[in-house]
Write a structure and sequence with these properties.
alpha/beta, Aminopeptidase, Alpha-Beta Plaits, 2 domains, six-stranded mixed sheet, four-stranded antiparallel sheet, binds zinc ion
């Protein structure tokens, strides 16, 4: 174990002193992890992806964990169990060792897999998403072992290699190993704080219903001179359908769409109003001049906590240069809804399909196919794990954390809830502008080291008695 390897003289130290003393090595190890080009989408990198799995497993084995590399039909999953502590809380830390592709390479200032380290910043593919954040947890465990000699909880790491390609094999893997992976809390650090220096607990993720809509109006494209005025037009029909999906106040018009939407409490709305959210920066970043949306809700509420409906793609008819007088026989649209608790993605799909088919104009058929369904996920704010996270973040950052929701979806979070009965605890160590998935991805050195401290503090806080703790927000 690292505790033994790093000698008894460290036992008098605090975690903070340990992190300061070991700073250079903690960084060097992360740089070695970042040098592995574990691009999961590229079959040419399959051996690199496995090398990153082996690096992850070895790092945990050195801490005394029982670390195994499990093969799946795709890339392997690393599972590592710490020593059993009967009666203590069961904590699972989830992350991923795979990374996004690096193209376009010419937009990088340096080789994405030859990390550059300045006084303040680590720049490399995977620095923030997610090697830096998961490795902060590994090193948080190391610090706890070095300082205290033992862990205070039953701890399991699950580090997968397919997150960036949609985790196609993880859900089945978790279901198959549910007994061994059962946990009270799943800790995930694969995101951002609301702003630098502002510790953040993300307690809600939106879900998703994604559909393809196909409209058919004729057996073939028809000449608009010979047939125009006498036949249905698939593009006209589709345009009408899509235009009718929302009203002028941004309300979705699918009957029953809002039936199961859990309303925002006054306390949540007050908390969201206090979030330091810069609307001008949001507009500038998006390159938009306005922020339209559902009437009656603030911008933060709309992007974090209200359901949406958006057209994501549209095609049909003549798309070439110049003119072609044609009436389209077929038209296609991609439509997605971001969902909130307690909307059921399958139910929303059924309602959307029924509404589109019932609204079709004369002589056209409408086919609606589901492409992706994922439920929203919520951590109850009165969960003991939230109180523990709040205490840990306050201890390390010296200020109260902000409670945020995210408009995005991480389907595996709801799967962990469903399959393992675990409360999700999302604590991002990175920043929104870490350029995840983009050229010159980076991670602040301070955020990495704070992540190590937070991880250690969190495990200790989760081990404390679970009653009577303060609750937020
Ligand atoms: Zn990630």
């Amino acid at each position: 174990m690292a505790a033994a390897a790093t000698s008894g003289s460290l036992r008098a130290m605090t975690v903070d002193q340990y992190v300061v003393a070991q700073r250079d090595r903690l960084l060097e190890e992360l740089l070695a992890y970042l040098r592995i080009p574990s691009v999961s989408t590229d079959p040419g990198h399959a051996t690199d992806v496995r090398a990153a799995a082996e690096f992850s497993a070895a790092a945990l084995a050195r801490l005394g964990f029982d670390a195994q590399i499990h093969d799946t039909p795709g890339h392997p999953v690393v599972v590592a169990h710490g020593p059993a502590l009967p009666g203590a809380p069961r904590v699972l830390i989830y992350g991923h060792y795979d990374v996004q592709p690096v193209e376009p390479l010419e937009l990088w200032d340096a080789d994405p897999f030859e990390p550059t380290l300045s006084d303040t910043t680590i720049t490399a593919r995977g620095a923030s998403d997610d090697k830096g954040q998961i490795y902060a947890h590994v090193k948080g465990v190391e610090a706890l072992l070095a300082v205290h000699g033992a862990l205070p909880v039953n701890l399991t790491f699950v580090i997968e290699g397919e997150e960036e390609i949609g985790s196609p094999n993880l859900s089945a893997f978790v279901a198959e190993h549910a007994e061994r992976l059962a946990a009270d809390v799943v800790v995930i650090s694969d995101g951002a704080m609301v702003a630098p220096g502002i510790p953040t607990i993300t307690y809600g993720l939106r879900g998703l219903t994604y559909v393809t809509v196909r409209v058919r109006a004729a057996g073939r494209d028809l000449h608009s001179g010979a047939y125009g005025g006498g036949v249905p037009n698939a593009l006209d029909a589709l345009a009408r359908l899509l235009a009718g999906l929302k009203d002028e106040h941004g309300r979705v018009q699918v009957p029953g769409f809002y039936d199961d939407v859990s309303a925002l409490s006054d306390a949540e709305r007050a908390a969201m109003a206090r979030v330091p959210f810069d609307e001008a920066a949001f507009r500038a970043d998006a390159g938009v001049s306005a922020t339209p949306g559902e009437a009656g809700y603030s911008l933060v509420e709309r992007i974090w906590a209200r359901p949406t409906l958006d057209v994501n793609g549209l095609s049909g008819g003549f798309q070439g240069e110049g003119a072609k007088t044609v009436i389209a026989a077929e038209a296609m649209a991609k439509v997605s809804c971001r969902l909130v608790p307690d909307q059921d993605p399958q139910d929303v799909f059924a309602k959307l399909r029924a509404h589109l088919q019932a609204s079709a104009t004369e002589g056209v058929s409408v086919e609606v196919r589901a492409e992706g369904l994922a439920p929203a996920a919520m951590t109850p704010l009165d969960a003991p794990s939230v109180a523990a996270a709040r205490a840990a973040l306050l201890q390390v950052w010296g200020r109260e954390p902000v409670f945020a929701r995210s408009g995005g979806s991480i389907p595996i979070v709801a799967e962990f809830q469903r399959l393992l009965g675990a409360e999700p605890l999302l604590i991002g160590f990175g920043q929104e502008d870490d350029r995840a998935h983009a050229p010159n991805e980076r991670f602040a050195v301070h955020d990495y080291l704070q992540g190590v401290r937070v991880s250690a503090a969190l495990l200790q806080a989760l081990a404390r008695p679970r009653a009577g703790a303060p609750q937020g927000p």
